[in-house]
Amino acid sequence: MEWVKGAPPCQSAKTSSMYEQPETRENLVMDNVPIQPRRVSGQYFFEYLVVVSLKKKKDGSNYEPQITYQFPKRDVMAKYQKEEEEKTLKAITLFCFPEGISWAPLTEYHSETFSFVLTEIDGSRRNGYCRRLLPGGRGARPPEAFCIISSLACFGLFSKIFDEVEKRRQISMALIYPFMQKLREASFPAPGQTVEIKSFIPESGTEIIHLTRPLDSWLEHVNFCTLFDCLSDEEVLQVFAAAVLERRIIFFADELGTLSQVLHAVAALLYPFTWQHTFISIVPEILIDVVMAPTPYLLGVQKCLLDLVTDQSDVSPLLFTGDEDSILPPKLQAEILVALSQRKKEAKKVEEVNRVVSEAFLHFFVRTVGHYSSYVKYTKEGPGVFEKRRFYKAIESKTTRHFVKKFIQTQMFDLFVQELEQQQPSGRQQGIFHRKITEYQKKKNEKTKKH
């Protein structure tokens, strides 16, 4: 392994990364598997909202996070449901205040928004959205956190909801309940659609709040701008290469919002594949020993916990395996870099940057594994069978074939193939990935005819 200099400071926060190869293929396990939630319009916006406040411990020595408000509150529950909810609520307090530092009352505090993922035993996942702020009042006081738990992944939309929550909090806690009640009664909009929420604020009257989902719903939880503010294009390619081969990756940053956005952005680069291993966008201090796991992970750790990470491990937090530049086929690496450069010329808004970046990496998968559907053999009796050897042998480029031979050993590709084998031939041809494959093949055929 080679020691290298860490990533340079970004505009909004300092971020660095660490990745190293898992010990053996046999050690891979399905730990904290993040399953993509269904994004169906008509669902509730959220399950519940909680307020996590810092309260003095009984001995008065320090503050500890406690839930002081919950909406809606479920009073009638079976014993096992109550136990599960208590575990969830405990986890929420840890993620809302993950630093494990000695808090003190403050007179100034810059509010921040971040997200985390709660993964259940069965692999299902829920998203936690958090806004930490300094409540209204005089004198020094500890910050508090508002946390929304939802099965829906849409960071931008929930950030706007928190803007409304914070505005009401500065006037009175009593104004938050009617707003959240209206929100809970509203149906989650379809991609590209808007829902209107009417809410009354004293001295301002009734306000109409417009909440709009992005048209590209598969990118609505992502902000690639933060990732590229923190890392250069070449460094993002190195991280992508490590993630594609399911290595261990840790990001360090000062701000919680930076960590959560960078982690989700890296996971989104893998589309149409899904990260299948441990994913913790913000690691609480109490869970810091997860860095010792021998299996793949994507972790976000605050820089104030950096010493704990190095104490837990024999490796430096600025460590590369050394082969990151040679994992991806050189020609395709160059194509990605050219495509990414277009965002600096054309893309100004977050949505435009997301489109340029996502298409650059999606095109990479189109070029490398876009011929997958031709190598699934179907029978009348049962599910299809993917002919793995014929699939990668069909690739003409030696460097691309070398990469694909490694990539098809990953769990993310295994899951993709398993789902493919279970589908009927008539049900396979759909989705944005297939559309991009069709467009690429059409252009390739037209180019062949001209020659």
Rg calc: 23 Å
The main β sheet shows up as: 5 strands, antiparallel
On the 0-100 scale, what is the average pLDDT? 83
CATH superfamily of the largest domain: Longin module
The number of domains: 3
- The top-level CATH class of the largest domain is Alpha Beta
Rough outline: globular
Q: Structural class of the helix and strand makeup?
A: alpha+beta
The CATH architecture of the largest domain comes to 2-Layer Sandwich
Low-confidence stretches: 1-14, 20-41, 314-318
Helix content: 25-40%
* CATH fold naming of the largest domain: Beta-Lactamase
Oligomerization state: single chain
Total helical elements: 14
First-to-last CA distance: 47 Å
Features:
single chain; 451 residues; alpha+beta; Rossmann fold; Beta-Lactamase; 3 domains; five-stranded antiparallel beta sheet; four-stranded mixed beta sheet; 38% helix; disordered N terminus; dDENN_dom; cDENN_dom; guanine-nucleotide releasing factor; UDENN domain-containing protein
